[in-house]
Amino acid sequence: CPRCMQCDTKFDFITRKHHCRRCGKCFCDKCCSKKVPLPRMCFVDPVRQCAECALISQKETEFYDKQLKVLMNGATFFVTLGTSDKSELMVCRLSNNQRYLVLDGDNHYEIEIIQISTVQILTEGFTPGGGNSRAIGMILQYKVPGSEELTQMKFTASEDFSCNKKLSASWLAAMHKATKLLYESRDQ
User: Fold this and answer.
1) What PANTHER family does the record point to (predicted)?
2) CB 66 within 8 A of CB 141
3) CA quadruple 141, 144, 148, 149: dihedral sign
4) Rounded-to-integer distance, Cα 98 and Cα 14, Å
5) Integer distance in angstroms from the first to the last C-alpha of the chain?
6) Is residue 134 a contact partner of residue 104, using CB atoms and an 8 Å limit?
7) The whole model's pTM is what?
8) What pLDDT score does 117 carry?
9) Does residue 101 fall inside a structural domain?
10) DSSP state, residue 131
11) What CATH number did the domain enclosing 33 receive?
12) What's the CA gap between 122 and 157, in Å, rounded?
């Protein structure tokens, strides 16, 4: 690699090359100077990363420290399958191995995370002046193994108790961050 893959600076005796520990590309010191923890790749101490990878690593660290616990603890939702008019009260959580979305109620569903194609968070309370919106539900589309058709599930926050509503909103916010992170890492 004779030149920096970011700024095209030529490497020589003074301008040394450095490898981003996440993407493996070759950069000059200016373009690869951030040292960020990278536990998912088993680095104990913070390691050199390019600016793009450092940002993703920081988001991942925040996700693992905060949102993952919320997703694994779960929340209660009214779940509607497909175009049905009937909804079922279910506890939705991320499995311990983080590979499945588990829904428990009268029925039991396990949706493999890799089969989820789209997640749309439903909100209310948005004002034209830029006020905050609040997550009240989500629509999830996924492929059932052995089928090419998409199945849809709608999750609506339970209105029973205000603490349930807050827990559901926190879970939905964590799910939203998780899907953004998932799509960013898929693009890399």
Assistant:
1) ARRESTIN DOMAIN-CONTAINING PROTEIN D, ZINC FINGER FYVE DOMAIN-CONTAINING PROTEIN 21
2) no
3) negative
4) 46
5) 20
6) no
7) 0.65
8) 87
9) yes
10) P
11) 3.30.40.10
12) 10
Contact call for residues 88 and 105 (beta carbons, < 8 A):
yes
Residues 177 and 87 in one domain: yes
**What pairs with residue 18 in β-bridges?**
27
**CA distance linking residue 18 with residue 133, whole number of Å:** 43
Determine contact, residues 99/179, Cβ cutoff 8 Å: no
Residue with tokens 């040394």: 16
Query: Phi and psi of 4, rounded to 5°?
Result: -65, 135
Instruction: Note whether residue 2 is domain-resident.
Output: no
What are the structure tokens assigned to 64, written together?
């693992």
Q: Name the residue with tokens 């420290």.
A: 65
Closest CA to 151 of 165, 166, 138, 141: 141
Nearest in space to 153 (alpha carbons), one of 188, 122, 185: 122
Query: Cα–Cα distances in Å, from 52 out to 36, 120, 126, 141?
Result: 12, 26, 31, 29
Residue type, 172: L
At residue 144, what is the residue type?
Answer: V
Residue 84 backbone dihedrals phi, psi, to 5 degrees: -65, 155
Place of tokens 């998780």: 178
Q: How far is CA 37 from the centre of its chain?
A: 18
Mean pLDDT in order along the chain per 10 residues (188 residues)? 95 94 94 88 90 89 83 92 89 92 94 88 68 80 87 83 72 82 60
Three-state secondary-structure class, residue 13 = coil
**What is the distance of C-alpha 135 from the center of its chain?**
16
